[in-house]
Amino acid sequence: MGLFFKKSAPGENRIENSGRWPVRLTHFYLIEDYEFPPTNFPEIFFVQEGSFLHETEMGTQALQAGAVLMVNPGNRHVVRQPEETILSRVRYLPEWLTQEYQIVIRSPEVVSLFFDQSWFRYPREESLHVFTTRQESTRQISAELEYLRGLLKENRQLEPVARVSVLKLMMLIADEHHRFWRGITELQFLPEAMHALDQIEKKIQTGAPFFELKMARGGFDKKEIDAAFLQLTGLGLAQYADRRRVFHAACKLLLTDREPRKISKDAGFRTSAEFSKQFQSIFGISPSMYREKFGSTPDGSAGEALDERR
Question: CA angle 237-241-242, nearest 5°?
Fold first, then answer.
């Protein structure tokens, strides 16, 4: 855990960080304006105490305790005129949750809210969701944030229990989003698409090759499968399979010390060069650089220094 201060007058904001990648929790104690820069990571903000004006490119709205902000990779946003505000933020790497496929994929509200631009590539433009929570759920969310904070202070961010805690937060918040968001909150999971998702995942988890024409159809027509899958993910079957294969490899880079070339082979890539090329196309960096930035180190901590500026 680290403490960072933003100097201002006549008071000062205080920022308290806990954990390291693949999951990080930050508490912002704000009495002065604070700007959040564009992010490459999904972020969950929860207003624990106080109130403020939230400014984005779309405009400004007043928020108070119990409000939630879901930020998929997107643009800057600013806290204006905070009144003794405590704002908690969770940042995480979506590929870290790859092993929780069965939980995530069968929770459409969670998928539609948290993985617009990362788990799948949904043809949607929203990168920010803002909504309120019920008083009872506010207490549950605060309690789960405190539990996660305790795990991260103990450097347990790489343990399965940390993933479960993040997933529980996602479930709690997604339920509130469904109740209090006036827009469209759910994606339509047609059975044809669900069947294809499961068939692909079975192959990828074992490192077996995926051949679209040989995929079991489960009684569905291929054209219906293709259409439903494209509507849901914005990707063809083979494209999605390649992406999931890279995500599984990324998860192993995060959580194991196996050599990238061995991970590449286990994941079913024909060559290390093919693996590196596909990995670079999704994450923008090489597998070795990814591990150096986000992966575990010999002492069990994550590679990237804990710094609010990153």
Answer: 120
Long-range contacts of 219-226 (CB under 8 A, 24+ apart): 220/191, 220/192, 220/195, 224/192, 225/192, 225/193, 225/195, 225/196
Residue 304 domain flag = no
Measure Cα distances from 241 to 73, 92, 207, 244, 278 in Å. 22, 22, 11, 5, 12
pLDDT above 80 for 310: no
pTM of the model: 0.87
> How far is Cα 142 from Cα 165, in angstroms, rounded to an integer?
12
Q: What is the CATH number of the domain that holds 71?
A: 2.60.120.280
Q: What is the pLDDT of residue 123?
A: 47
Phi-psi category of 181—alpha, beta or left, where left has phi over 0 and alpha has psi -120 to 50?
beta
**Domain check: are 53 and 170 in the same one?**
yes
Residues 176 and 211 in one domain: no
In the prediction, which pLDDT does 163 show?
A: 94
Do 6 and 153 belong together in one domain? Answer: yes
Higher pLDDT among residues 111 and 16, named by residue = 16
Tell me the C-alpha distance between 213 and 233, whole Å.
19
CATH number (domain holding residue 257): 1.10.10.60
* Residue-number span of the structural domain to which 225 is assigned: 191-294
Taking CA atoms, 175 is separated from 68, 110, 112, 241, 305, in Å, by: 12, 8, 12, 29, 34
pLDDT value of position 297:
53
164 and 235 fall within a common domain = no
